[in-house]
Amino acid sequence: MAKQMINLKIDGLDIIVPKGTTILEAAKKIGVKIPTLCHHPDLSIEGACRVCIVQVIGRNDFTASCSYPAEEGMEVITHNPEIRQARRDIVELILDNHPDDCHTCERDHNCELQRLAYAMGVRHKHFKGEKKNYEPDFSSKAVIRDPNKCILCGRCVRICKEVQGISAIDMAHRGFQSVVMPAYDMPFGDSICSSCGQCINVCPTAAFLEKDYTNQVWEALNDPEITTVIQFAPSVRAAIGEGFGLKPGHNMEKQTITALRRLGFDQIYDTQFGADLTIVEEASELVRRIQNKGPLPMITSCSAAWIIFAEKFYPELLNNLSTCMSPMSMVGSVIKRHIPKKLNVKPEKVFSIAAMCCTAKKDESQRDNYQTENGERYVDAVITTRELIWMIKSAGIDFVNLEDGKFDSPLGESTGAATIFGATGGVMEAAIRTAHYFISGKELPGIEFKPVRGAIDTIKEASVEIDGNTYNVAVTSGLGQAQALLEKVKSGEANYHFIEIMGCPGGCVGGGGQPYAGIDMVPADKTLLKKRAQALYSADESLEKRCSHENLNIKILYDEALERYGSAVAHEWLHTHYSEKQPRGICRYGKPTQVSSCITPDDPRYKELREYIESTQEKEHKKSFLIPVLHKTQELFGYLSQEAMDFISVTMQIPTSRIYGVATFYHFFNLKPKGDTRINVCLGTACYVKGANDIVREFESELDLKMGETGDDMKYSLECTRCIGACALAPVVLVNDKIYSRVTTKDVKKILKEYK
Amino acid sequence: MNPLEQIKIIQEEARTRVSEEKSSYPIRIFVGNATCENAAGAESVYKELQAIKKEEKLDQLYIGQTGCSGRCDREPIVQVFVENRIPTKYCEMTPDKIRKVIKDHVQNKKIIKEWTL
Amino acid sequence: MKEYKYAISICAGPKCRNKNQELIKTLKDELEKAKLSDVVKVLESGCMGYCDQGPIMMVHPDNVTYGNVKKLDIKRIVNDHLKNKKWVSDLILQRDQVANSFFPNFGDVEFFGKQYRITLRNCGVIDPEAIDDYLALRGYEGLAKVLTSFSPEDVIDEMKKSGLRGRGGGGYPVGFKWQNGADTPSEEKYIICNADEGDPGAFMDRSAIEGDPHTIIEGMIIGGYAIGAKKGIVYIRAEYPLAIKRLNIAIAQAKEKNLLGENILGSNFSFDLELRLGAGAFVCGEETALIASIEGKRGMPKPRPPFPTQVGLFGKPTVINNVETLANIPVIILDGAAHFATIGTDKSKGTKVFALAGAVKNTGLVEVPMGTTLREIIYDIGGGISNNNKFKAVQTGGPSGGFIPEKDLDTPIDYDTLAKAGSIMGSGGMIVLDENSCMVDIAKFFLDFTQNESCGKCTPCREGTKRMLEILIRITEGKGQAGDIEKLERLGNMIKKSALCGLGKAAPNPVLSTIKHFRSEYEEHINGKKCRAGICRSLLSYKIIEEKCIGCGACKRKCPTNCISGEKKALHIIDQNDCIHCGVCFETCKFDAIIKE
């Protein structure tokens, strides 16, 4: 049945759209670009910023075009003086609560808020006032949070929840005090964040940034005694051009090498060499497991965010992970173990840098066993594509017009299979090309394996025939899809041999360290990802050698040092092991197995709480019982402690960030214990008119407490409510459960005497 | 039996019970019991009434409760129904005042005009 | 106070007032003749309905309604009924009106005379913890009638005919809302009672639930039947523990008598009811925020469309009704939609409960037919301004509403007239302000409330109301600047049109309304640095009057800035430069020697 079509008018222009199209989408079709801020086409509709307001004829109020569907006969005006002033005022209001330090901000010239402020014409601020003031959080190794720059668009929360399925962060508190934070405002580094950096990608301002390691790199470059060795990822070359004004999809490998040369790096290697190395090791591992009938399915391990996530939330699948390290770390290991001899330098004088599209690699490089026995880290510093772009700019290098450069030997050669690592499905395709050869001795017919490409927002499944046997494979990108895939695996629904999981949607080309979306581009947009991936696929098609096992320098490396695929040396140099980590709470989709294994603390109140929770979990829509559970918890304990909320998180399978967001939103919940005597002054209208304010002042002076505080001796708490509902007897004061009516300032001392 | 027929029976049974439980008493006193009433002290008035009933062995007295009638600034409100006399509402009652009401209004048939609405 | 044995209400609603003047005169004459003037009170009440059978006279406490009363009938009523206690049977209207069963509690006729109790008909009459009381007064008969002889469409039709509009403040016609809910196809639907009552100064819903919980339950079951919902939820704020307790008791009682649960009264309609507690968020009175709260999330509103009747709780069609709205449902079914539609005005049918508070003599809950004027409520029912002060303004609609000055006091109350007068009906809060209230300070109070309760999702409300509040605080602290009023208007008008939900859109109303009617007070604060009501401390100066000061030194000892100087037994003086206007000296002085101006 054909979709119903709607006729409407926008700015006097007629247009016909299918039913369900929003005004914003309809306007785009006729070249009307309504300004937006919190809107993102791939995330749920928020309708929060109100920048996209338009006037629908016949309605008194403005309408948010991002969420309102087109209606038959509707007439929309997208700009007139009133709307323009309203938009301008709204954007100014955001700026009024935003730091005034554009010129020293990381996102100067690359900030959506800045662009919007210019377009809306905010030249003078009329409504200056209090600004929020939070401490930036530098605790994570990979991602920095600065809530002062946050404009509360909610995109980070939505992508972490809806796409990545983690919910490491959520909105907390409410009103003017709203802020995006991990649960309990704990250090970001302690939270369940997997460092995927998607929050950075979608953030319109500098509220999220990668942790900057360029200082260490400059230092190393400036030190004449240090040999700087750098490698960079396939995805870097596919996207770096965007930082210099080029359209997405240019493969700038050769210019990048030259730029690095000009920056002064001593050796420039290719992470793609590592990719080929990973494939030959991993394909061998796969073949071995197939022969030994387990553990299968084997799951790729090169995505750093995926590993961080797996160790916290899928410890039962750690044996399925390939023991191979990522290409970056393999190259790093070879750099520290093999290259110093070749360059005739001491290993401790080698500084290994990796320019990656990824923020989680910063975590990976600091993992416990990613170093030699002498404590030489495989990779000393990881910088993102963005950091590299800045380094090149700050050194005054005219990137776009550079001549071609070449990688250094012996870690500079790579095949087409390595290049496609950056795209989702790339590792799988590369592995199949080589596994086919290893098992059957013959090349994969056609070399390419397209069924595993393009797994964005979906899971790609395929089967490949090798030597008369069928092998089932699955590929997905983004941690949300990964969880869906893994649940299929655990339920026994599917029978895969090999799975590729990339932490970021689109694969590494969509990594948390990639260049910001330019003007007129959507951050983390799928078309953007496809263009970057295409640059890599095109490079693969143009190369002569397209399979990892054809890499000559790898053959030499094995001859010189590693002996053969899967040898003990190879294991020492190139493989790793994983260990279970204790997450603070659960991720979005939860793990039912955690509930039964959750240990109830000794306190008998927890037993009662657990029984209550279990009774709610029998019912439909069980997660909706969070608020009744919080009420029960407060009833039992007097307040909501972090320990209690962690307990609820596991027993109800709700992320702690969400629980904290709910607990801080509702003023009925106390997150700190209250005093023995709780004095509650009603500040409803009737009470206010009868002088409740004076009563508050009197209590404040008698108790030496400010409204909302509890004394250090825990004897008294002073609070206010907004209407107990006994308005005719105003002013009203509630002490514990007793109501005092018609209270005057003179009664305050009398009341307090009763509780001394 | 359809629901309407059923409910009429249920209602009739309820009326009988109410009549037996309350309306059969010649003296019925109802104390308001709601958040605003209690904030004004209605609970202590209720308790006092129960005490008086026991002390004076007033077996023909029924003590009941109602919700808030809306006359909030004159609470606690006590409604006194004595057979063959007009129902009367007393306002701003306290335990002491209710004692006097029992004495004057109920036992001596004298309405305390100043305390009525 | 006279001891009345009877009271007679004669309809003096807008339609009948003039016609009935003659009847009232005749009645008073007849009473005089029968020597009953001292014991029978004649009341002019609001519209009692039955307009097609008018003139109507109601005799209390007998709860007898006479219809089609002519001048000649008065004598019979006075002599037969009032004197000889024999009801005039041929004049009695046949209907056994549910709504007026309230009146058996006699007394206090001035307060109740102009009221017409439908929502609160049982409050103060029955024991709310005894289902028998409710049943005895035709409880659950409406439900039984519906289950016996109404189809869901019939019920919705009846609601449409009654003209009942949502009493939570939105005023959306209930019949159409239920129609929308019924029209959206789904196996799973919900009906929710919004008992969040966050408006400070409003307590109608609390009283209604504490006084008569069963009527809400009955209304919800009928609503569930009409829209096809088998599940009902009462969302009630946690700050109402007694109401929660009574509702739980009532639900258990209803279940026990097969009035709730599986196969109600033997029919094939099953309906279950559960309670969900709020947790201190005014914004959860907004429909989509309420739904989010029940779903266990932060109470943040969502853009509409889709509307809750299409995509609501857990994504299913959901109808949300206010407590007061639901309390009217059983009465409409029993007394008929046509009768209900005779009460009130053209566009606003029925009655409304107001929580009258502030500077009036009689505060409390007042239920009047729509069309009653503000003046009648404040002066007739409310008894006028307390302490005989001067009336300044009446605030309706809580923090979303506006102020109505003296000149508009004859506005008959209904949804549209109040909106035209620059305020809203809201949930029914009505605060009377006298000359001792500062309009700027009150506007600041409301904005402070809204700012505190803002969910923080949308920019205009989160940031805009904060900036408006900062300006108001400055003005009340004597730091107002030229252009402040214009800024308030600019922000206020923008927020009204751009905010995401009703809380935000209505947040500027108190400010814009006070600017509209009391602009001069704002100007005085800003330009003259004066607060004429004497409320804004920073704008007051305290002075010691020479004639009254005895030099006791009490004020000097208490002064936190030591700005009072004076010798013992001699006149003390306050140094205005150091005075921080805290008012402690004013409160300390026992000799009224300190004034504030």
Layout of secondary structure:
The complex is a heterotrimer of chains A (756), B (117) and C (597).
Chain A: E1 5-10, E2 13-18, H1 23-29, E3 53-56, E4 63-64, E5 74-77, H2 81-96, H3 112-120, E6 143-145, H4 155-163, E7 169-172, E8 179-182, H5 198-202, E9 208-210, H6 214-222, E10 227-232, H7 234-239, H8 253-263, E11 267-270, H9 271-292, E12 298-299, H10 304-313, H11 327-337, H12 339-343, E13 350-356, H13 360-364, E14 381-384, H14 385-394, H15 416-419, H16 426-440, E15 459-466, E16 469-477, H17 479-491, E17 498-502, H18 526-542, H19 552-562, H20 568-574, H21 592-597, H22 604-617, H23 626-637, H24 642-652, H25 656-665, E18 677-682, H26 685-689, H27 692-703, E19 716-721, E20 733-735, E21 738-740, H28 747-754
Parallel strand pairs in A: 1-5, 10-11, 10-13, 12-17, 13-14, 16-17, 18-19
Antiparallel strand pairs in A: 1-2, 3-4, 3-5, 6-9, 7-8, 15-16, 18-20, 20-21
Chain B: H1 3-23, E1 27-32, H2 35-39, H3 42-55, E2 61-66, E3 78-82, E4 88-90, H4 95-107
Parallel strand pairs in B: 1-2
Antiparallel strand pairs in B: 1-3, 3-4
Chain C: E1 6-11, H1 17-33, E2 40-45, E3 57-60, E4 64-66, H2 71-83, H3 109-113, H4 131-136, H5 141-149, H6 152-162, H7 174-183, E5 190-195, H8 204-211, H9 213-227, E6 231-236, H10 241-256, E7 272-277, H11 287-294, E8 318-322, H12 323-335, H13 337-340, E9 351-358, E10 364-369, H14 374-381, E11 391-396, E12 402-405, H15 415-420, E13 429-434, H16 439-453, H17 459-476, H18 484-498, H19 502-506, H20 509-528, E14 542-544, H21 554-558, E15 564-565, E16 573-574, H22 584-588, E17 594-596
Helix pairs in contact in C: 1-2, 5-9, 5-12, 6-7, 6-9, 8-9, 8-10, 9-12, 16-17, 16-20, 17-18, 18-20
